[in-house]
Specification:
The chain is of the alpha+beta class. It has one domain. Helix content is 28%, strand content 32%. It has helices spanning 21-35, 54-57, 77-88, 163-182, and strands at 10-18, 38-41, 45-46, 62-72, 107-114, 118-123, 131-134, 137-146, 149-152. Strands 1, 2, 3, 4, 5, 6, 7, 8 and 9 form a nine-stranded antiparallel β-sheet that branches. A hairpin with a 2-residue loop joins strand 8 and strand 9 (149-152).
């Protein structure tokens, strides 16, 4: 029988895309309130590898990746996904902001984490290569780390397999490794 031990904490990330750039700023504020300060923000990137979201979000989508300073327990990913899903929904008038227009989301926020060996994303969509975490949330190992860089699987979304995004995740992993060494 193997010895049960706690996993190392992981580096929480989020991918956000929208056609309304001001929502990225508001989302970063709200995410920081929930998960602590950011220690990485990518530049704004075109979200043009798929037209899947065009009907809901419109055209000219921009994406940004963020990473959080505070490391988290990987077992909290489902709970974090539920929190980010809530941020996507229409917020009450008492909170002073509505992100949804005509019942459609205006921003997509997908959390995940980076560890030594992988990039894991949370999703509500089941598929053969995804593991159920609970509460309607699944996890996918989207990239694995090998030979000094992140690498794609056959199921990896084309944008996540692209050199610019691989570079982003390699950078975030370097931040993570440095954090672990310093603690």
């Amino acid at each position: 029988m193997g010895k049960i031990k706690e996993p190392l904490p992981v580096k929480l990330i989020a991918s956000m895309f929208t056609a309304r750039r001001e929502l990225l700023e508001e989302a970063k504020v709200r995410l920081s309130q929930e998960f602590g300060p950011l220690d990485y923000e990518s530049e704004l990137l075109p979200f043009d590898h798929t037209s899947y979201y065009a009907a809901e979000f419109g055209e000219n989508l921009r994406r940004q990746f963020v990473a959080f300073e505070e490391l988290v327990h990987p077992g909290k990913l489902a709970e974090i996904k539920l929190q980010t899903n809530a941020l996507e929904l229409v917020l009450s008038g008492a909170k002073g902001m509505e992100w949804a227009v005509e019942g459609k989301r205006q921003i997509n926020i997908d959390p995940g984490y980076v560890s030594h060996s992988r990039l894991v994303l949370a999703t509500t969509k089941d598929h053969a290569h995804r593991i159920y975490l609970g509460q309607g949330i699944y996890a996918e190992v989207t990239l694995y780390f090998g030979d000094g860089t992140f690498r794609a699987w056959p199921w990896t979304y084309p944008d996540y397999a692209s050199p610019p995004l691989i570079a982003i995740f390699n950078h975030i992993r370097a931040l993570y490794v440095k954090q672990l060494r310093e603690t």
